Structure formats: structure tokens, C-alpha cells
Amino acid sequence: MLVIRLQTPNDPDPAWAVLTNKPADWQHGSWEKLLPAARGQDVVLLIPGREVLLTQTSVNTRNQKQLQQAVPFALEDSIADDLDNQHIVWQTQANSALVDVAIISRARLREWVNALQIHQLRTTSILPDLFALPWETDTTLWQQGEHIWVRTGELSGYTSSDAALPLLLDSLAAGKTDPIPLRLYSDQTDKWTTDTRFVITPETQAEQLLPASLQPALKLNLLNGLQDENRAQLHQQWQRWRLAAGLAAASALLTVGIYGVESYHLQQQLDAVDAQNLQLFAELFPGVSDVDPRGLKSRLASELARVRGKGSTAGASTSPLPQLSAFAAAMGKAGELTVEDIRAQSGTLTLNLQAKNQQAIETLRDTLEKALGNPVELQSSRTADSVKATLTLGGKS
């Protein structure tokens, strides 16, 4: 177990001890020196006792659900801040109605959790640092500089300043007739030599952490219940935003549905155009089958080339095949065109076409005139989204 002691969340000089079943020496240094010791260890974080209120209350139940409601209610009058902003953990005492309680600001507790996450460490327990003081049966008091830590029980204690020491000692001795056993570590021992109210046992191992000091206090781990609070907050946020999230999801589904319907209609139109082109191709070339509508333009060119070769051998001057051949070659240069109808009569070839723009029609006519050496008659009309045209080719090439 790695025990880390910090004075502030961004403390650059941590103290730490690797605790087993034997006393461990405190070490002091930098995070770079500490982090290698954390590998494979459970991490316990000790934070300043001044940030945690340790108290007791009396609750006549041991049911955890009832305690969850009763403990905050019992403490409501003794806490100045809003209880909704406090994180409260407790531990019942055996054969007693007393409950040991630890209270810390919820926001501050999360700052301490984040303090270790910055260094890629995850703490399993957070405790006030006064639980590092030795505890057996006697009250333990440590005095260092202006700070005082007092441990009065296994799960109880408090911190104070040096200025409040006289009042603190008076409260410890109040109502007692016999001298009070006190385990003491102090860097100001001269203040204690004449106080007869206490029987002092000097602490000689101030730089050691004892397993018996820390292990019992883990029952009052400040992380207890924090995960449940996080879940409750998430649930509360979900309740608040559930309607908005539902509307957003419905909007997304509606958009996908509209897109799907539009895609379906466009595909139907495309299939209808493909079927019309295939029907026209079949009328021109009844002996050709298995034509892919997407490769219809190239197949038309190859069939026209084949027919043109036969037509030139026959030498029929009135055959429309030369015009068809020239038309097939010109289609590749003209852009995107759709053939709606082809009629041949008395050496004249009439082509009914549809294009997205007039330029494609003009390019087709120019290409045919250059290929045939004869003028090509053009008639065209524009609709909302396309241009329809009729090309008339003479019977001689």
C-alpha cells in the first residue's frame, strides 16, 4: 500500500510511505521520485485534516438505506453550509447507537481525486492526515510549528492552530480528576514540562507510519458513496435533458427517412430511364441480348461500328448506318445525353435527344457535321431542368 500525504492538490513536494505489515518510514521529495514506488500498489491519499469534519451522531438504526437519510438529517443543524454541497460518509459503532461521521465539501473532494489523476494515479482511499497519528487507547497529540493534530479515537479527532492550544488542553482535561494519558510529539517540549494535568508518553518515531494507525481508519474512506453520487447526478442530468435528446433522435430519424424516400424515388426514375434506353436499343439491334444499362453507350458504339462495316460492304447509299456510326462516335464527346427516339426513313436519320444543357446538343451537332461533311439540322426546346432536341441527318455521308 502506497500512502501519499499532500498539503494542497497541486503540492510539488509530496510525502509518501510504502506500508506493509511493518512500520514504514516517511519519504519526502518530488513526484518524479514518488511515481516509481506506485507501480502495483493500492494508493491511499492523506489530505489536511482541516478540510474534513470528523464528528459523531446518534442514530437508532443500522439499515444502510435508513442511515443514508437519517445521518444527514441528524447533522443538519450542526453544519452551516448547505448539506447538498457536502459529501458525508459514516461508520456505525458496534453495540452502540453512535455513528462516526466524516464530512467534506463535495467539490473539494473531487479536486483531491483529480490531483492524483493528473499524475496517472488512481486512489482507492482518501483520509484526513490525522489518521497517520499513532492510536492505541490514549489520546495522541502532535505539534509541529503552528499546526496541531489530535487523535481522540480510532475514527475521531481534529486539527487546530498553535494559538488555540490552551483551549484545546482545557477541553481535554475538562471534568477529569486524574491526570490524562497523552501520547505526545512536539517540537516545543518546553511548554509541556509543567502541565500536571497530563501523563505524557513521548513519541520518538515521528517519521514512521504504523499499520495499526491507518488500517482501522480505512472504514471511514471519504471515497465511499462518491461513485453512487456521480451516478445519481448523471441520472438527474439525463432526466433534465431526456426530452431534448428524444427530440434530437426523432429529428435524426426523420431526416434519415426523408433521405431514404428521396433516394428510392430517384432510383425508380433511373431504372425507368434505363428500361427505356434498353427497349430502344433492342428495337435497333434485336439480335443483341444481355446488355448492361450502365454500359449501353459503349455497347451502342460497338454495335454501330459493326453494322457500319457491313453497310460499307453492301454499299447501300440510302442506308442510315453511316449516320448511326458517326452518331455513336460523337456521343462520347458530347457529354451526358439521353436518346429518346431514332427514326430512319428514305436516307434521313432523325434523332430525338434529351440533355441537361444546350451546350451538349451543340457539341454533338458540330461533331456530326465534321464527321459526315454535311450540315445537321437542329431543333431544340428547353424545359425546367433539361433541353430536348431533334437532329436531322441526311442520307449520304
UniProtKB/TrEMBL annotation:
Recorded superkingdom: Bacteria
Primary subcellular site in the record, as a coarse category: membrane
The keyword Ribosomal protein appears for this protein: no
Topology term for the membrane: Single-pass membrane protein
GspL periplasmic domain location: 236-394
Subcellular location: Cell inner membrane
InterPro entries membership: ATPase_NBD, GspL_cyto_dom, GspL_pp_dom, T2SS_protein-GspL
Pfam families hit by this protein: GspL_C, T2SSL
Keywords per UniProt: Cell inner membrane, Cell membrane, Membrane, Protein transport, Transmembrane, Transmembrane helix, Transport
Domain GspL cytoplasmic actin-ATPase-like: start-end pairs: 34-225
Family membership noted in the UniProt record: Belongs to the GSP L family.
Function: Inner membrane component of the type II secretion system required for the energy-dependent secretion of extracellular factors such as proteases and toxins from the periplasm.
Protein name: Type II secretion system protein L
Species in which this protein is naturally found: Thiothrix litoralis
